[in-house]
Amino acid sequence: MLPPSFPFGGMENPRLTFATPTIIAGDRSLVSLVAHELAHSWSGNLVTNATWDDFWLNEGFTVYFENRIMEALYGRERALMLQSLGWGGLQDTLASLPPADTRLKLDLAGRDPDEGMTDIAYEKGAAFLTTIERIVGRERFDAWLKGYFERNAFRPMTTERFLEDIRTHLIRGDAALEAQLMMDAWIYQPGMPSNWVPPVSDAFVPVDAAAAAFAAGGPASAIPWAGWSTQERQRFLAWRPQGGAEGADWLTSAQLADLEATLNLRQEGNAEVLFAWLQIAVQHRYQPAVPTLEKFLTTMGRRKFVLPLFQSLWAEGDWGRPIARRIYAEARSGYHPVTTGSVDAVVGRP
Questions:
Q1: Which of 108, 190, 241, 295 could disulfide-pair with 102, CB 3.0 to 4.6 Å?
Q2: CA–CA distance, 118 with 97 (Å, rounded to integer)
Q3: Which tens digits make up the pLDDT trace of 111-131?
Q4: Is 188 a catalytic site residue?
Q5: Which residues contact 117 (CB under 8 A, 6 or more apart)?
Q6: What is the CA radius of gyration of the chain?
């Protein structure tokens, strides 16, 4: 475990994983990150992307493996919940990036490689592999996967070499299968190909219903919060009304106060859940949550949380920007340069 200023969730190194303390939730609910970094021993360290344009070969494979590990440990439903949350984040990323940057094979010539470290590499890459598994079957896909790592161990990997390997050892000249997989569309075209089947978690149906009921005026006491997993709580806090204007208020101050008090969100120790709540609070300009926000932003430096919260504050204009400037002036010296480099571009250097 690294100090709270560590800017990433985790970083794989041969024989030693670095991890952020924000994965310690007290209930082992965030261990998927541990699975992710361990899986990098194969996808990332044994077979490594040759260029940053091929970054998806590291992260797409690793997110796929992470989900397989979660399925083996906790069952298919937990894996589906994690996939569904990932799909939600990926949809936001697809909507926010230029089309060219939503391709798996990137063109980062003359750019900071950090610009390619988006959910495209992670979640779209994993979705591509999940699609191949669905079409060819898990047993056949697993056999190819094991061979892929044996054949390419300690070899820099490009997207083109990946395609050569899968066509030689899995597709084997089957033109119908090649057409069904749509590999070139996944890799070289923007967005999601037509053969993508979004994950659906039945466990989220009652969660969405509870969120809709609360948004419609129901009491927070009716939310079955105590019986929910971290993933169900994340889903609840990520829910937004369909068709509503982006950033528009959908909860009143009284509802926010009810939610905060009933769910004890000021004392929430799970960083993922707290982050999701603070995004709601900032988007509603909910002043009572500002002390919680300030404590969060001044006690950890994980960019996944820090940058979006400062972006949300900045988007709130006259209300959010003074808060952003004040907190950043206090917190910046404790952040890693990876984090300050991103936040400086939003808030400016104090």
A1: 190
A2: 9
A3: 999 899 999 999 999 999 999
A4: no
A5: 55, 59
A6: 21
pLDDT of residue 81: 96
Q: Helix or strand or coil: residue 15?
A: coil
Q: Which of 12, 59, 66, 122 is catalytic?
A: 122
**pTM of the entire structure?**
0.92
- Please state, in angstroms and rounded to a whole number, the distance separating the CA atoms of residues 201 and 168: 35
> How far does Cα 165 stand from its chain's mean position?
28
User: 88-113, pLDDT tens digit by residue?
Assistant: 999 999 999 999 999 999 999 999 99
Amino acid at position 116, single letter? G
Other CB atoms within 10 A of residue 147 CB: 13
Q: Which of 82, 52, 49 is nearest to 65 (CA)?
A: 82
From the list 12, 37, 59, 66, the catalytic residue is 37
Cα dihedral 36→42→47→51 (10° resolution): 10
Active site residue 335: no
